[in-house]
Design a protein that fits this description.
mainly alpha, 4 helices, single chain
């Protein structure tokens, strides 16, 4: 008589698996990253991933023959590039507003 095997109860899915950062990396990476990396990935990317910048960071990383499974292309390269881009955009925006203020100040005087 065959013995019946007890089936393990299936663990509920990790709610982080649906996070936009994890889904975006999965799309680029063609598989899920290791679960022990998920919190670092989510912290580096945030709620609104810049897919184009992520893809460029990954491509540049791989083109240098770095290990594609190493997430430093996210935690270092993407995070630094995004910060620099955001700072540049903020700086550009401030410069435009300063020019507009100066223009309106001169036109309102005359």
């Amino acid at each position: 008589m065959p013995t019946e095997r007890k089936r393990k109860a299936k663990a509920p899915p990790d709610p982080r698996s649906n996070h936009p950062a994890i889904q975006t990396v999965r799309g680029i990476f063609k598989r899920y990253p290791r679960k022990d990396q998920w919190d670092s990935i989510i912290a580096a990317i945030g709620e609104e991933p810049d897919t184009e910048l992520l893809h460029k960071s990954y491509t540049d990383w791989c083109n240098r023959d770095y290990n594609p499974t190493d997430i430093r292309w996210i935690t270092d390269w993407y995070a630094v590039r995004k910060k620099r881009r955001d700072e540049r955009l903020h700086s550009d925006r401030e410069r435009v507003f300063a020019k507009l203020r100066a223009y309106f100040a001169t036109t309102s005087e005359g």
